[in-house]
Amino acid sequence: MAPSIPISPQSAASTNSKRLSSARLCASALMVASMGSRDDATMVAVIALTALLAAAAASGSPAEGFQPLSKIAIHKTTVQLHSSAYVEATPALLGEQGEDTEWVTVKYGWANQSVDDWIAVFSPADFNSGACPNPSRYLGEPLLCTAPIKYQYANYSANYMYWGKGSIRFRLINQRADFAFALFTGGLENVSSLLLLSLHQPKLIAVSEPIAFKNPKAPVFPRLAQGNTHDEMTVTWTSGYDISEAYPFVEWSVAGAQPTRTPAGTLTFNRGSMCGEPARTIGWRDPGFIHTAFMRNLWPNKEYSYKIGHELPDGSIVWGKPYTFRAPPTPGQNSLQRVIVFGDMGKAERDGSNEFANYQPGSLNTTDTLVEDLDNYDIVFHIGDMPYANGYLSQWDQFTAQVAPITAKKPYMIASGNHERDWPNTGGFFDVKDSGGECGVPAETYYYYPAENRANFWYKVDYGMFRFCVADSEHDWREGTPQYSFIEHCLSTVDRKHQPWLIFAAHRVLGYSSNSWYASQGSFEEPEGRESLQKLWQKYRVDMAFFGHVHNYERTCPMYQNQCMTRERSRYSGTMNGTIFVVAGGGGSHLSDYTTAIPRWSVFRDRDFGFVKLTAFNHSSLLFEYKKSSDGKVYDSFTIDRDYRDVLSCVHDSCFPTTLAT
Ligand SMILES: [Fe+2]
């Protein structure tokens, strides 16, 4: 039985194309397809095992997938360089004009070609150097200890199986180190060490000469985020320059004014900061240096230009690209204010590599739709599960590069998801391994957010007529915890006559979702999700609560304690009597199913990739829109028209006691 190999150039192209449908291949089919030629008995055993693995994955979370890099058993690789095998990459020098992204052509071949052959991209190029962490579960000292940053099957190139020669184009980003391309045979060997240990092992048979960006240390991929106050914008970026080599700074100015230079702080982390595998072992990659500068005392709504840079000891400056941003409005300011909300976007490779797991099939569509629409929104909330690096740290660079066209121009506010934070025995609320050993460190370092302690991912953002209270569903939120105190403080300290639009957000569904996995557990939420919080949402009249984690779209009626407070579906006005709950987890990762029975409170469901846009026209009028990533068009919407007295009006459990005294 010789199944055709994973993905053809044509199908890969369609994976990355617009209008990608919600259909996805099942994990079993993908894993079987990835194994290449084996005998039938082995195949039957593997199919059975794969089904078990898929069932286990399905039972562990609302929606999980396979990190493509985890499919490679790099630590089991043997090295058998073959005289007839070769790999060549051109050009040797990248980014000659200062580009941070380049396409390279990789040519390769050998006499005993196989459907199992694959090309790995390594960075640094000297991927076999240094000590192996050699965790106890590996038998003996592994020959290779570093996962590639991406890979592609050799027969992705047409006629490789016929001629034994192929050519693939890879898209590389500047990641502070050089690159090498390696040809492997023997498959990826990842499915089962019990069944397949002696049958298939990756064999390294050829390696290219290294290629590199002209300045691998160059500052790249700026990320804006609102600071502690409305008049403060922060910019965070990545470089290869430690503070001892060059001073990081941002040069910025309002249009027509003399530019100011503001120094940046520098952070990094090391392998020892990781909590487990693979982040601590084969997934580790040096993160370089992450710099953050604060641009303060901004004039509301004014356009600013900025440019990141590093001053070298000789006084010369290495510049990043120039960008502009619009300063946030003051709290309560009456102006047009537009907000994007989604979760669970993930990353994908534009060259079609790493796609065999169909890991985040809608990611590029969402990114590209938001890039095309940059002029029509002001601030973005990505509420958790960002790259799904799962301990393969190179993927954080790929993600920051993918969203850079957005983050360089709009404040990009994030929340912590299970794929950023969760690891057993590290103080999180969920003792699972979803972060691949990252335990929150990359997320808390690569991005800025105005939390008092960035290890606790909760913070508030005032944006004009909005207040956002962003919670951390990976840490305990229940009554009596520090996070509960923060949530109550955030909700209670906003002056609703000036900031009428009060929004709660967290990654996991602490509100309501008719996702099939929750239903299979007998609920419509995370365990104890809303039990403590719903009285706060009601008492402080939260307009909307957003969640991700479940990879689809769903919105409820305005509700409290499982009950709809109105039958209205699209035009809400008058007394505010409940919170509207929204799942916006269809940012890009593979989609989640619903229960077959639709709960009464579920007003609209869409199992597709998409995001939400809020538009506040003034203090009384808000427009909610759900858009699909595939075409950017609106598929669900409603309006809220409300005056201040409608927020003050008392409904069930929403007011303090009154006295009869006059
Ligand atoms: Fe999640």
Describe what this molecule looks like in 3D.
The protein has 662 residues and is an alpha+beta fold. Helices cover 16% and strands 28% of the residues. Strand 22 and strand 23 (466-470) form a beta hairpin. Helix 2 packs antiparallel against helix 3 (40-60) and helix 6 (363-372) packs parallel to helix 7 (394-407). The longest helix has 21 residues, at 40-60. The protein is globular, with a radius of gyration of 25 Å. Fe (ii) ion (FE2) is lined by residues 344, 385, 417-419, 507, 549.
The shape is: globular
Helix content: 10-25%
| Whole-number mean pLDDT | 88
* Rg, Å, rounded: 25 Å
For the report, how would you describe the main beta sheet? 8 strands, mixed
Structural class of the helix and strand makeup? alpha+beta
Strand content: 25-35%
Number of helices: 13
Ligands bound here? fe (ii) ion
N-to-C span: 88 Å
| Count of distinct strands | 33
Low-confidence stretches: 1-60
Give me the secondary-structure topology.
Layout: H1 9-16, H2 27-33, H3 40-60, E1 78-79, E2 86-90, E3 93-94, E4 101-109, E5 118-122, E6 150-153, H4 160-163, E7 165-173, E8 180-185, H5 193-196, E9 203-207, E10 212-213, E11 220-226, E12 233-239, E13 247-254, E14 260-263, E15 265-267, E16 289-295, E17 303-311, E18 317-326, E19 337-342, H6 363-372, E20 379-382, H7 394-407, E21 412-414, H8 418-421, H9 441-446, E22 459-463, E23 466-470, H10 482-492, E24 501-506, H11 516-520, H12 534-539, E25 544-547, E26 553-560, E27 563-564, E28 571-573, E29 579-584, E30 602-606, E31 610-616, E32 621-628, E33 634-641, H13 644-648
Parallel strand pairs: 1-9, 3-10, 19-20, 20-21, 23-24, 24-25, 25-29, 28-33
Antiparallel strand pairs: 2-4, 4-7, 5-6, 5-8, 8-9, 11-12, 12-16, 13-14, 13-17, 15-16, 17-18, 19-31, 22-23, 26-27, 26-29, 26-30, 31-32, 32-33
Helix pairs in contact: 2-3, 6-7
Residues 344, 385, 417-419, 507, 549 line the site of fe (ii) ion.
